[in-house]
């Protein structure tokens, strides 16, 4: 169904909707689905609550938009999976470090991880993001079951790094250089990609 | 300051306080610190709110009690760190899998991870639990900095497994047997314990 044209010029819409999304990520992460009101988000974004309905339709629509990574994230994931398998450990780690450092993608990933702690539909979305980004390893594994196990192990290391470094900020992992992390961690990821595991 | 004797017989106190703690873990994890009321916890535990004050003193005291692992958890952690370094990969993984399967320890760990997503004092406690349990690796590393880096890497793998398997329940990691997990993952932990990383 086509949406009504936005009020005001196009770039104003972009600015306002980015502000609403940033405020929404903060509120949903802090207070969960049930504890978050559109009024509080409107206050955080300094906009009229009616504008949130106008742009996103509903609280559900807003949560969905706030936790959906931009399309170019999917592009970079797809590009990473074309890496020759023997370099996938490094490539997956660089993909993840780059995504978190990205001003558009990082906050979305953070919102997903924080909100997934207490909101089942976001937990479901997290599973889809993990499956879609870290488990699309069609070139990994001898068969479907092997591929799924290897992708799950890769995910467990990547997501653990994300929680320690970006969400909980536990030192020294939070402050290690990207190069040090790649040196220390990529061989472990590579083992999950192609070593004999069992 | 000595506490007043509990109302009712000793085992009744144990039963009621365990029920209050279980309800508190659920509420704090779901609704965060600000969104949780002692009244809701009392309702969940089917007790009078006054009893919560009587047992735990305050909302702060209750959160603290709900997210403090039992003392025997610290004992098993200390015992694990006496394992010969060349077996630490397996030992740490078994420690963690055993703790999550434990009816008393598992719910506390879960409450810490879920509540840490949106409550700073619990995030601080998580850092202390990680440092105290996974980073007490005095026999690991060539010096203090090396020990901290290795412990951080070990933690990132262990905590990632915990999130994937027990909190987000992403398959197939959530359902893999403990033996399969040990076979697949312990060599990676062992590399963080004693291999050349940089």
Automatic annotation (TrEMBL), chains A, B:
Gene3D superfamilies: Homeodomain-like, Tetracycline Repressor, domain 2
Alphabetical list of PROSITE patterns matching this protein: HTH_TETR_2
This protein's UniProt keywords: DNA-binding
Source taxon at top rank: Bacteria
UniProt domain HTH tetR-type: residue ranges: 14-74
Keyword Nuclease applies: no
Gene Ontology molecular functions: DNA-binding transcription factor activity; transcription cis-regulatory region binding
Segments of the chain annotated as binding DNA: 37-56
Record's keyword annotation contains Electron transport: no
Annotated protein name in UniProt: TetR family transcriptional regulator
């Amino acid at each position: 169904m086509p949406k009504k044209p936005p009020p005001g010029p196009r770039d104003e819409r972009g600015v306002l909707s980015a502000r609403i999304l940033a405020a929404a990520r903060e509120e949903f992460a802090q207070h969960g689905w049930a504890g978050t009101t559109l009024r509080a988000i409107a206050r955080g974004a300094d906009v009229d609550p009616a504008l949130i309905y106008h742009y996103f339709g509903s609280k559900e629509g807003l949560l969905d938009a706030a936790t959906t990574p931009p399309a170019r994230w999917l592009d970079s994931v797809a590009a990473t999976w074309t890496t020759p398998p023997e370099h996938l450990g490094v490539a997956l780690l660089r993909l993840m470090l780059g995504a978190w450092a990205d001003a558009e993608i990082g906050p979305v990933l953070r919102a997903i991880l924080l909100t997934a702690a207490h909101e089942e539909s976001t937990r479901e979305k997290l599973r889809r993001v993990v499956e879609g980004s870290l488990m699309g390893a069609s070139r990994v594994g001898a068969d479907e079951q092997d591929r799924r196990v290897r992708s799950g192990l890769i995910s467990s290391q990547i997501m653990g790094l994300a929680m320690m470094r970006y969400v909980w900020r536990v030192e020294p992992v939070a402050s290690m250089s990207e190069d040090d992390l790649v040196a220390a961690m990529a061989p472990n990821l590579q083992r999950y990609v192609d070593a004999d595991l069992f």
